[in-house]
Amino acid sequence: MFPPVSCLSRLRRCRAVLLLAGAGLLCGGCAPALDWRDVAVADGLVIQFPCRPERAERAVRLLERSVPARMSSCDAGGLGWSVTLFEIDEPARVSETLRHLRSRLAANLQAEESLAQEATGPGLTPQQEARRLLLSGRGADARAVEAEVLIAARGLQVLQVVAITRGEPVSRWRDRAQEFIGSLRPAP
Length: 188
Description:
Keywords: Signal. The protein has 188 residues and is an alpha+beta fold. The protein has a single domain, classed as 3-Layer(aba) Sandwich (Protein Transport Mog1p, Chain A). The protein contains 3 helices and 10 strands, in the order αβββββαββββαβ. It has a 7-stranded antiparallel β-sheet, with helices on both faces. A 3-stranded antiparallel β-sheet has the order 1-2-10. The protein is globular and about 40 Å long. The termini are far apart.
């Protein structure tokens, strides 16, 4: 039937199987937690999400008006990632909407703005009220939160881009958040 197998040969096979199994476990641990991909968030505007976002559309109340909003969001690598696009109907309301979204997000997170700087970038309309900022505060569940935020305009569209950590921040979260926000650009 089968030729006799020496003890040494069996040990070699067992060792090879164990090495392969161990290598498989190690490779499984090397799988990236963030799987970056380009996602269109508006006509002609893309951003790199680190996960496959879910999408939702609805009308929201902003400054006593109903405004169409489209949101793309997902959770990966210990962070929440989102882009919300608001369609504003009057050019005069864009600056006011930018200001309102900044204060509303800060209030929702019971946070103070820090490291605020003017938001500029390819595909964005220069606006005095557009900002890139860091928010540190508390979520509805009283856990500490930190968020890297971009609130900017593109014509009559207002964008709110957020990378947020809840509870204990993950290692290098701000680098990842800045990479996410910095990837917003016109579509090729």
